[in-house]
Design goal:
Elements: H1 17-45, H2 47-50, H3 57-83, H4 96-99, H5 110-113
Helix pairs in contact: 1-3
Length: 134
């Protein structure tokens, strides 16, 4: 009589419940470490909080937003001075076509023009990820 013995596939690891808990804990711990590291990087970039010792994460994010807004306004003023773009434009209304006279973009080569740009938005690793993974 022949018996069919199923062997677990090499990709499928059989883990005990304790190993599963341990693995989940390690993954969660690693995610926390990555988030902490990314907040430290963001804190180091933002001038208003970079010198402070203990700053809540929400404050770091709020100050980063303010800093980005300041940079947008400075760019709009610089563009107005260099190219004569009306100051009535808010920084959020500036398009790449308006930037072309001030900051010329390199023209794509013939073989690069056929490549489609990525449609997935750029994400900061762990800092502002609103997508939930299941």
């Amino acid at each position: 009589m022949l018996r069919i013995i199923e062997k677990p596939s090499p990709r499928k690891l059989v883990m005990s419940p304790g190993q599963k808990v341990s693995r989940k804990y390690k993954i969660a711990q690693q995610k926390r470490l990555i988030k902490r590291r990314e907040y430290k990087k963001l804190k180091a970039i933002v001038p208003s909080v970079s010198k402070k010792n203990k700053v809540p994460k929400i404050t770091v994010i709020e100050e980063a937003i303010k800093y980005i807004d300041e940079l947008h306004v400075a760019l709009a003023k610089r563009m107005h001075l260099l190219s004569g773009i009306s100051p009535a434009y808010l920084p959020y209304q500036i398009t790449p076509n308006m930037l072309a006279p001030v900051f010329p973009f390199p023209q794509p080569r013939a073989h690069q023009a056929a490549v489609k740009p990525a449609t997935k938005p750029l994400q900061l690793s762990g800092v502002c990820n609103t997508e939930r993974r299941r």
